[in-house]
Amino acid sequence: MTLPATPPAGATPPSSVADSGAKALSQLSSNFDTFLSLLTTQLKNQDPLSPLDSNQFTQQLVQMSGVEAQLTSNNLLQQVANNTSNGVSTAVSLIGKNVRAVSDQATLAKGQAQWSYNLPADATDVKLTILNAAGQVVHAESPSDMKAGDHTLTWNGKDLAGTPSPDGSYTLKVSATDASGAAIATTTFVQGLVSSVEQSNGQTLITVGATPVPWTQVTNVTAAAGA
């Protein structure tokens, strides 16, 4: 996976360009308001026998409107450039492909949520705990397969009392120890088909199955079956 290129040395950062555009629009707006205020004062106090030439201030209005339109256009172009640098163009290319992304969250939908987790070494004790959005434990189990490698947990959405949980985002916590009792560092993933791309709070997210994850967390990409 190729990350967005770093701007060349000496190039103006996108944020600086955007800030400059916003500052220019603010100054133009202030100047425009001042111009209208002066124009209104002139019109109120003009000599009836020698009225002001309307062509002059009409031309100024047209010029200022043109500058404002150009600055707005530049800001829109900058937003497009920022979206590209934030990985939108790369993330869009993942739509329709199967990916694996680092995430401890999965979305429960239609009574099913699924995670994958990796044990880098054989374990003697593994505990899987699922938490809801409020941080409450809704499911816990100890798998029998504790060999090193990848493992999958599929949850039917039922809580500790056997009651179906509402659809939504849930978090998987994996704790594992080896024969000496030392903790084993585990990694949790979500896998599935990418269906969409969105930006939220300046971050590019892809929807894997039904779960939104940052596209930068993708570790593996494969073509969808039949593609």
What does the model show?
There is one protein chain. With 227 residues, the chain is an alpha+beta fold. It folds into 2 domains: 14-85; 94-222, Immunoglobulin-like (Sandwich), CATH 2.60.40. 30% of the residues lie in helices and 33% in strands. Strands 1, 3, 6, 8, 9, 10 and 11 form a 7-stranded antiparallel beta sheet that branches. Strand 8 and strand 9 form a beta hairpin. Helix 1 (14-44) packs antiparallel against helix 2. The two termini are 20 Å apart. The relative contact order is 0.17. Residues 1-15 have low confidence and may be disordered.
Per-chain topology:
Elements: H1 14-44, H2 54-85, H3 88-92, E1 98-102, E2 105-108, E3 113-119, E4 125-131, E5 137-141, E6 149-155, E7 168-177, E8 187-200, E9 203-208, E10 211-214, E11 218-222
Number of strands: 11
Regions with little confidence, pLDDT below 50 for 5+ residues: 1-15
**What oligomerization state is this entry in?**
single chain
What's the number of helices?
3
- The string of secondary-structure elements, in order, is HHHEEEEEEEEEEE
Mean pLDDT: 80
Helix content: 25-40%
Count of discrete domains: 2
The span between the termini is 20 Å
- Which word captures the global form? elongated
Q: Characterize the largest beta sheet: strand count, sense, and whether it forms a barrel.
A: 7 strands, antiparallel
Note the beta-strand portion.
Answer: 25-35%
CATH hierarchy class name of the largest domain:
Mainly Beta
Alpha-carbon Rg, integer: 29 Å
Give the helix/strand class: alpha+beta
Report the CATH architecture of the largest domain: Sandwich
Do you know the CATH topology of the largest domain? Immunoglobulin-like
